[in-house]
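Work package 3, deliverable 3.1, input record:
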Amino acid sequence: MAEVALRKVVKRYDDVEAVRGIDLDIADHEFIVLVGPSGCGKSTTLRMIAGLEDITDGDITIGGDVVNDVPPKDRDIAMVFQNYALYPHMTVAENMSFGLRLKHYPKAEIKARVTEAARLLDITDLIDRKPKQLSGGQRQRVAMGRAIVRNPKVFLFDEPLSNLDAKLRVQMRIEIKKVHQKVRTTTVYVTHDQVEAMTLADRVVVMNKGRIEQIGTPNELYHKPATRFVAGFIGSPAMNFIPCRLEDVGGKLNVRLTDRISFPLPPARAARYSALPRTENLLLGIRPEHLTESNAHLEPGVETFDTVLDVTEPMGMETLVYFGLEGTPICGRVDPNAGAKDGAPMRLAMDLNNMHLLNEATGAVL
Amino acid sequence: MSTLAIDKGGPTRKIKYRSMSRDRTWALRWSYFFLVLFAIFSLIPPIYMLITSLKSSAEISAATNPWWVFHPTLANYVELLTSNQFLRFFWNSAVVSIVVVCVTMLISIPAAFALARMKFWGSTTLATGVFLTYLVPDSLLFIPLFKMLAAVQDITGITLLNRWYVLLFVYPTLTVPFCTWIMIGYFASIPKELDEAALIDGASWLQTLTRIFIPVALPGLIAATIFAFTVSWAQFLYPLVFTTSIDQLVLPVGITTTLIKGDVFNWGQIMTGALLGAAPPLIIYAFLMDYYIAGLTAGSTKG
């Protein structure tokens, strides 16, 4: 087990810069998830750590040693691929022991390790089967088993659950988390699914266009996003962004959303934003769960407004409501018993204690 | 699927289902009709060969029904199989074909692996080039090849022309390009992650080739092997040009040159020799048919 560090790592393909100088420190035992839309450079970053891609510039260290020019087999890493990449002509046991056999481990030790990994992953019964005879979830377990038996310094996962159906994905997610709790190997996990990122990671690295947007714990990213990209990427349904301006009304700081709607900011927020220029184009970032039905006892900082709903989506435990504010589509989450109906007027409450204010031009959260 | 259609649908669905089944039946009947027609068409020559091989020379030249054997005899078979000359041809053919298959595989497998997986400068052009060489017909190549080998013989002093082993140098010019080409396709259909997994597991390129690629691509390799064997076994032009002495001949040339004396055709023995000559490829095909088909249709379906 080991810590991994990336220092100003750059990957350039001919004229395309896939990774643009990223710095990342991964602690020993840590579970790091790289998340971002396709083409953000997350897989390339993982493959550079694995040694499957050369790095154009910068340094990668594993356990304190610079591994820039070390071939994959000498980096002491194990990788789990999206399409499992099991050797089709070998049984589960042979697949898992292939790396150990190449390194000429004693037979008894190979057997012990394979048995232990199979027990850990609950695939003991499948040990003599060929990959063709396994389901997707079982294949993924075998792929993980192949990684575990090597007892490497670092586990690398490249979108391992993307080929599984939704139900199995949730199950395997829990499985991966359990395995990590048991073996505690430093893990770098790549996914485009923010739910996977949030649920698995000790820390999440949000990447966009070859750069790191923000690194933080799942809760930090959710509650304190640094940029509009992170705010919009993390959370489902996504955060709403409403064009707005600050204005002073009767000695109080207000945020004006439309000609009709202007809300006074709660004192804590007002103090934080008071120095901002009043003429600047800003965005009010508010998550759907902070746009709920109005009720009789409103907390301080919660303001109400009337709107006409476009569409409602009953989800069972909640109902998602969609409406427009001067052309900006907005999503809110209301109680299923609040009486939300398609095309019906409704009074909604916005919890400004949980608002974010963003610079429209730069996308920075203020 | 058919039961699903019945369960789900009302009367209208049922009618549709029935008509679909009738369509299918007719499609099947037509396919059988044409397949049988084609099978008869392609089986007539070998059957004729078999019939003729069981006749004596007298019966062949007699004005009787050529499709019937009135006095069956194995004399032609006995004569050929006890003739040292014929056995020599057979032996030459076998040695040449087996060695050529081995040489072809030894060159083609690493070449195809390199061209399919190791991206190096000019690898794509080289892969196309390999295939283009296969497109040049051997009837154009034999004269320059002959001149080349004659020059090599003059320079080195090693006798090559009119020796059976010259074919070991000549045949691979036909088999290597094609086998390399089909194996490039087969290797390319193996997911990239598989060699990356092997690479991370600690395999060298050679280990990746021998322990992952060759076993996974086995149907393709067998298809290529069969191809190389068939080409070597049935090649006529090159042995005709490069070998002339009776004891250096391979089967196809041997049969035609020794059993046709002037304008006298020993039809019974020619047919027997051709049938015996067709036996080894036939046996190989029969045993490896499944692999052969799997190899040729590789990548057409999700494996």
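Confidence is low (pLDDT under 50) at residues 1-11, 299-303 of chain B.
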